[in-house]
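User: I'm curious what two different proteins look like when written out as structure tokens. Can you demonstrate?

Assistant: Sure. I'll show them one after the other, since each token string lines up with its own sequence. Here's the first protein:
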Amino acid sequence: MATSTSFQSDVVPQAPEDPLFGLMAAFRRDTDPNKVDLGIGAYRDDNAKPWVLPVVKRADETLRKDPNLNHEYLPIAGLAEFTSASQKLVLDADSPALKEKRATSLQTISGTGAVHLGALFLSKFYHPNTQRTVYFSDPTWPNHFQIFSNVGLPYKTYPYFSKKTKGLDFDGMVSSIESAEEGSIIVLHACAHNPTGVDPTQEQWKKIAEVIRAKKHFPFFDTAYQGFASGDLARDAWAIRYFIEEGFELCIAQSYAKNFGLYGERAGCFHFVTSPGSDAESTVSRVASQLAILQRSEISNPPAYGARIASLVLNDKELFAEWEANLKTMSGRIIEMRKALRSKLEELGTPGTWNHITDQIGMFSFTGLSEKQVLKLREDSHVYMTKNGRISMAGLNTHNVEYFAKAVDKAVKATQ
């Protein structure tokens, strides 16, 4: 006998397929032997295979031999030696925020979980009686929109990528942040901006900080590529460390997916740093207590394995040095692919300028290709990339970079 219910399931609409996962599915269905996947946001070696970092293999071996290893719950805040090492990694071991005990951290479900925890916390406690707007770069990681809207925070965008120069629209960015309502939340990519690969210079970061301070905005850093972008951990964390030295109150979402290759292990960290002051420790204590309550209701306890791997490496000098070498291997290969692609496009005389390929940094590059050209590349050459022209540089290697360059050349010339 049917039961009555107030829930009308027939009004639930079919959600659109996630564009990136749809692209991955289409690539898998393609049987062409020359197909190229430039949509995937994960590192691939020169043979287009997933690469398990050698240092991760060593740490994994150590873990498996540990007679005391168990599968008990971690604390709500996560593995303490992991979160403390994560603080030192992103803030610097000598950071004034750590010396003055102005930071608190929780282990999260990778960077996505860290962004969500931060968004949820801000929706509840950042000027709770006033509607605050979140500002994202245009473009940004698409998941930012969904995460913040899910917790009820309205959002707008600030100009970021210049289609004309294929670089940073710095004036547009600064002007938009300057004109945003006072006390807005400004989401910033710490390095290797996703999806453009375009980063501000250090002097530009100083100006951005100046404007954010003047308008009393709240900075929210998303850092998914520390060490992976340039091969230099300190360089990739420069913007965050500068803001902290300048006394900003801010939060940071930190991911270990890319720089450790721990994609499926979902190891991440959320950090809240308060401003200097006599009540800083008290503020951090209260913030930590509320974050713990939110974490408890969301996931109770974070997963242990990825955090244990990262913790072993971060807390051991020898393993840490090996990790830095692994980071240079990954970032170095991507830099070489940037050089090779630009060189081949210029050799072919492909219409347009291609210096932005090497000017940009990190996993992704905004090629400047139009949606029409992207679709033609897929149809004619079995090259898979997002419609906005973003490619994962990690998908290129010495075996396919020339094929891709020729495919781009053909598509651009055919659509002029």
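Here's a second, unrelated protein for contrast:
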Amino acid sequence: MKILVTIKRVVDYNVRVRVKPDGSGVETDGVKMSINPFDEIALEEALRIKERGEAEEVVVVSIGGTEVQQQLRTGLAMGADRAIQVETDQAVQPLTAARTLLKLVEKEAPDIVFLGKQAIDDDCSQTGQMLAALWDRPQATFASRVELADGKATVTREVDAGLEVNEVDLPAVMTSDLRLNEPRFVKLPDIMKAKRKPLDTVPLADLGVDSPPDLVARTYEPPPRRGGGKMVGSVAELVGELKNKGLL
């Protein structure tokens, strides 16, 4: 069994995101960048599946410029066997990402394609679902538990009413939720070993995928600053303040 895991380079979740003064985007110069947290969880689950002897190879994939190699090397240090960079200097939106991954799926023939349920930069939560539709294979999204047996995957997902259990035939697309696992800490010896693992680069143009922008952002602006709070001495005073603000 082969598992293909996609990872995206994003601003680290511990960093406070700042909009550029000209409103043209988010400030990334000098900002710590990391693997999208949900993608890291997906990779950890793929590695655990391999460590249980249920998969032979884990391949990490990222789409972007040379800078994404840093995150791919981190994925290799975590334990992935090899990495693929789809090279492009353009921002890739979900449908283009899904079409790109489909080309790699056709070449690599994985049994599972594992993605994070969403990226923390755009929160689209679309790529996995789009890939499943283009690939014409089952999907199991927002996984909080994954079990494999007899060519099938049993996936537990959290829903408003509790837990939902789905069984899908492999090959399939899966996306990870927050509570699926806790990713491992990367050690220095593993980082050194990762430098010797294969990392292939494929230009996006060579895959025959057009990347027109499906959505064009004209400008960016931070959310309005919240006003200061006010202490009240009683419930009656609280109700009065709410009425004055037109909230009651």
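A detail about the second structure: The helical segments are 37-51, 69-78, 94-108, 127-135, 188-194, 235-244.
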